[in-house]
Amino acid sequence: MDRRTFLLSSASSASAFMASGLIPPMLPRQPRSEAKRFPVIPHERLLKMLNPPTDRVEVLLDTDTDNEIDDQFALAYALLSRDRLDLKAICAAPFHNNRSRDAADGMEQSYQEINRVQQMLPESLRVPAFRGSRQFLSSETEPVRSPAAELLVEMAEHTGTAPLYVSAIGTLTNVASAILIKPEIIHKIVVVWTSAYPHTWHRPNRSFNLQQDLHAARVTLDSGVPLVYLPGFYVGEELRVTLPEVRQYLRGHGLLGDYLYEIYENYFNDHFGRSKVIWDLINVAWLIHPGWVPSDIYHTPELLDDLRWGPQDDRRPVMREAHDVDRDAVFSDFYRKVQQLA
After folding, report:
1. For 206-248, how does the pLDDT look when each residue is reduced to its tens digit (9 = 90+)?
2. By C-alpha distance, which of 325, 300, 305, 286 is closest to 78?
3. Domains along the chain?
4. Distance CA 221, CA 301 (A)
5. Which of 126, 143, 223, 262 reaches 20 to 30 Å from 310, CA-CA?
6. Is the predicted pLDDT of residue 2 greater than 50, yes or no?
7. Which stretches of the chain are DSSP H helices?
């Protein structure tokens, strides 16, 4: 079997991982007295920061790139969209699944994959890559220091009046660590994260990006950082594609197109009647053209011990949550950019 063949149905769905025991057990909330205290962003300022961008924006991409294959598509999309994204850096996030021995190995594989994808692009389009955390958070008060977390803090501190957009397409370990290291950065960044289910979902959030590091998810949700939440189910899940489509629009279109086609083809042993979700494109799409990913303002939910969302609480800060995605517009833009590069 090719090392890239991966039989899980998606990066965000955790059912196969639960069966294999790779998802960590549910972690109880820390008592509020032990929780980290965060600065408060005034409501009007928070709403302003959550407005969809209309101009070119500064972006840091945080990605568990070798977790499956959707991250490579999203990474390529971000690198090819420099008219809209001032992509400053790419950080490797940890992951642990059938492709990795542990979180540290997952992070290292992601870092190497980031560099591999970038080698297929002209040097003028490449950006610095940084290693991230080698472990998940052990609590909601102690950060895991890494080059990625330190970089995020530094970039946030030196950003201008416009926010730095942190596009997180994996677990939030690096992002939450940066917030714990320097809580004041929540005034300077907007976190764009894809994972889990809408805030109205009443069942447990069995989601890879969330469950890999529950502490990190809770830190981010509770910190009051401006958050653009892009549910994987059933919003990002609309970004489905089939082998014939990928063959038609990617194969034969340069090194990058051929590589993306290859990892897609090797994902399933049998593609008959199957489609594959390229989940993480939604993060890049929202930054490029927010109208492709319609969203509304809601109160940020609390993540309970049973992985359910807590009841809506108007005392919690607001977030922006997507409720749809224009699948055809996103893929048309993506394919066009890969072909133009070729």
Report:
1. 999 999 999 999 999 999 999 999 999 999 999 999 999 999 9
2. 286
3. 43-341 (3.90.245.10)
4. 7
5. 143
6. no
7. 15-20, 43-49, 70-79, 103-118, 147-158, 173-181, 208-211, 214-223, 243-249, 254-265, 281-288, 327-341
Q: What pTM value is reported for the model?
A: 0.91
CA dist 301 and 286 (Å) reads 21
pLDDT per residue over 155-198, tens digit each? 999 999 999 999 999 999 999 999 999 999 999 999 999 999 99
Compute the C-alpha angle 261/264/267, nearest 5°.
Answer: 150
How many beta carbons lie within 10 A of that of residue 42, not counting itself?
9
CA distance 170 to 326: 22
User: Percent of the chain at pLDDT above 90?
Assistant: 89
Which residue reads 């995020």 in tokens?
Answer: 152
Residues 58 and 50: their CA atoms lie apart, in Å, by: 15
Q: What 3-state class would DSSP assign to 226? A: coil
Q: Tell me the backbone φ, ψ of residue 91, rounded to 5 degrees.
A: -115, 140
Q: Which two tokens stand for residue 231?
A: 């549910």
Mean pLDDT of 66-77: 97
| Closest-CA residue to 173 (of 120, 203, 222, 132) | 132
CA separation for the pair 45, 252 (Å, rounded): 47
Q: What is the pLDDT of residue 19?
A: 35
Q: Which two tokens stand for residue 65?
A: 């790139």
What confidence tier does 37 reach under pLDDT thresholds 50, 70, 90?
confident
Separation CA 217–CA 291 (nearest Å): 26
Residue 310: band (very low, low, confident or very high) from pLDDT cuts 50, 70, 90: very high
Which amino acid would we find at residue 261?
Y
CB-CB neighbours of 308 under 10 Å: 16
